[in-house]
Amino acid sequence: MIVRPRPHWLRMLFVWRGSILSDIAPQLICTTLLAVAVTLLHGQVFNWKIPLTFVPFSLIGLTLAIFLGFRNSTSYARYWEARMLWGSLLNETRSLLRQALTLSDDPARAQGLTRQLMAFVHALRHQLRGTDGDADLRRLLAPDDLARLAGTRGKPSMLLLMMGEWLREQRRDGTLAPVLVPAMEHHLGRLTEALGGCERIASTPIPFTYAVIIHRTIYLYCLLLPFGLVDQIGVMTPVIVAFIAYTFFALEALGAEIEEPFGLAANDLALDAMSRSIENVLREMIGEPALPEAEPQGFILN
């Protein structure tokens, strides 16, 4: 995800990175060239005049706009839910660590829990993206913890189990009063809910038929549109077709991109920056120096 201040209105007109334009440029160019050809041929194909007017396109355009609005609203709802889940990771990890540092009779023993919390965040990021997280885990975890994680498919779930075992050890050793354990266990439960919510979003895409219907309708609409406009607006047909095609193609591409918010596209969630920010918050709480920021300053996590 691109994290930056909002540019000036004039500069916004020419922004390329993150604008979806690079993804839709081939089909946009092809549609515009077709509109140019239709204009030059006055709407004729092999000496046959295609009898179309702008009326059916007005009706279809309204229906298409409704479908696109539904698709984008659903995609953004998934995106925002994913963002809220990652915001809850910050709240729950620092609350759990704060209680481990202030409620335990031996705060020094919270070092292991801190490492497991950091590793949990990075392991979740790598699981959602399908990337290799061994480097982050080796950097954070003790050899015994690494050995337990080796070969496991659900590394975040295993780390939650290990954090629960840490609570059990503190209660058993008397460094944490039994009455305080449920309060800390509550935060582990919320971390489990965040993990499950992220897994649900990642494994349950929007039904494929919605994408198929919208995709087919958009392309048929944009390819036939020049024939319906050329008799009314003449040489301006390619300009209007390009503008309408850009709007529809961009909305479709944006909906498809943010539908999977954990990816690496420009408009997906900035999981690298979020993971690093959470780790730095936890490091500061135990008195360790923070790591360099992964994204420009001004990124707001909550």
List keywords for this structure.
single chain, mainly alpha, 302 residues, two-stranded antiparallel sheet
Which geometry do the CA atoms define?
A: elongated
Strand numbers in spatial order across the main sheet: 1-2
The biggest beta sheet is recorded as: 2 strands, antiparallel
Low-confidence stretches: 295-302
Number of strands: 2
Oligomer: single chain
How far apart the termini lie comes to 16 Å
Radius of gyration: 26 Å
Number of continuous helical runs: 11
Mean pLDDT: 88
- Helix/strand-derived category reads mainly alpha
| Structural domains: how many | 1
User: How are helices and strands ordered from N to C?
Assistant: HHEEHHHHHHHHH
Helix content: over 70%
Percent strand equals: under 5%
How would you describe this structure to a colleague?
The longest helix is centred in the first third of the chain and has 49 residues, at 54-102. This protein has one domain. Residues 295-302 have low confidence and may be disordered. A hairpin with a 2-residue loop joins strand 1 and strand 2. Helix 3 (54-102) runs parallel beside helix 10 (237-259) and helix 4 (110-129) packs antiparallel against helix 7. The protein is 71% helix and 1% strand. The two termini are 16 Å apart. The protein has helices at 9-12, 21-40, 54-102, 110-129, 134-140, 143-149, 155-173, 181-203, 208-233, 237-259, 271-285, and strands at 44-45, 48-49. It has 302 residues and is mainly alpha-helical. A two-stranded antiparallel sheet has the order 1-2.
